[in-house]
Design brief:
Helix content is 58%, strand content 9%. It contains twelve helices and five strands. A hairpin with a 6-residue loop joins β1 and β2. Bound molecules: iron/sulfur cluster (2 copies). One iron/sulfur cluster binds at residues 241-247, 263, 266, 293-296, 298.
Length: 327
């Protein structure tokens, strides 16, 4: 079965969402809207199994997100007034804790070692902000904190370097996040909320993710266009197709044998799969509704007849080759 540009884009979207946690919310919303629009255009989808499952998934995501967001917000509000400073530092048990803070470009993650209620070591696990800020401001902050053994009274000075203030606050809030994990009975968001937000929603979108997404989709469009041009074969027609599915919405057949009708016929013809077009041609009732709606001027019946002609040419050429080979 030919794979439409929409399907290729959907596959790319899922892969990008897996490798870029910060892009999951954007990509998930995009994917969902596209699927709903597609469903609306198709009007029926062979018993609508996709729609039913998509709707259930949407309900689960909305309820899960609402619950997790409320929980995380409550914890964050509590943390604003209950920082691991002063007296509270004496409640932080000895151990090694990991924490995350919002940086300038991307979240900053740290690992903090606590001994005798003092910070003994800070290791930066993840950092994607400016390297110059790490080498200067963050290094100085780290040294000051280690010298004091706590984060009380550590001032973040405005810096001339772009992003230094955001990065500094992100670094300190990552340490705070780690320290509160060492306090018994400190309110937490809970396993469901954190897992849900991490896996389904991912991280909040940051500059790095937005740039990475822009590059990935730009490269995809260039290569996809090149691929389509290479795969297009001569059927005697231009066969431009935007994969918009307008024809599918207009066509009374809509879907047969898993092919969206007649959009997938156009795709099959472009891929030179004339055999499939010919085999499916019996389902076309010749009403012409697709031709009236298609923005690229395609018509199911004319694609079918062009493909049948092309198929005959291909078969005749094949027979000639076999005959020539046999002498
Ligand atoms: S002409 Fe054929 S492909 Fe076009 S809308 Fe009618 S049945 Fe569908
Ligand atoms: S309406 Fe035309 S451009 Fe849109 S998917 Fe159908 S054949 Fe392609």
């Amino acid at each position: 079965m030919p794979v439409s540009r929409g399907t290729r884009l959907a596959i790319l979207t899922v892969v990008a969402a897996v490798v870029l946690p910060g892009a999951r919310l954007i990509l998930g919303t995009m994917l969902f809207v596209v699927l709903l629009v597609k469903f609306y255009r198709l009007r029926r989808w062979e018993g609508k199994p996709y729609f039913k499952y998509l709707l259930l998934l949407l309900v689960f995501i909305v309820i899960g997100y609402t619950y997790a967001a409320i929980k995380v917000r409550q914890v964050n509000e509590y943390r604003l007034t209950h920082k691991p400073v002063g007296e509270m530092m004496s409640q932080v048990a000895d151990g090694i804790y990991e924490g995350k803070g919002k940086g300038y470009r991307a979240p900053i993650e740290v690992r903090v070692a606590v001994n005798d209620h003092r910070i003994k070591d800070i290791e930066i696990i993840s950092y994607r902000d400016l390297a110059a800020v790490r080498a200067t401001t963050v290094t100085q902050l780290r040294e000051k904190i280690l010298e004091k053994g706590r984060i009380d009274g550590i001032a973040v000075e405005p810096d001339l370097l772009r992003g230094a203030v955001y990065t500094s606050y992100g670094f300190i809030s990552a340490i705070e996040d780690a320290l509160v994990k060492g306090i018994k009975d400190y309110p937490r968001a809970g396993l469901f909320s954190t897992t849900f937000l991490n896996v389904v929603i991912g991280a909040p979108p940051d500059r790095f993710t937005i740039n990475a997404l822009a590059i990935i989709f730009a490269v995809f469009l260039v290569f996809d266009y090149a691929l389509q041009s290479v795969l297009t074969r001569d059927t005697g027609q231009t066969l431009t197709c935007y994969n918009c599915a307008t024809c599918v919405g207009a066509c009374p057949v809509k879907m047969v044998e898993g092919y969206q009708f007649p959009m997938d016929l156009v795709l099959a013809a472009r891929l030179g799969d004339y055999e499939t077009v010919e085999r499916l041609s019996k389902y076309c009732v010749g009403c012409g509704k697709c031709a009236a709606k298609c923005p690229a001027g395609n018509s199911g019946p004319s694609i079918i007849s062009a493909s049948i002609r092309a198929n005959r040419r291909v078969k005749a050429a094949e027979e000639m080759r076999v005959k020539a080979a046999l002498g």
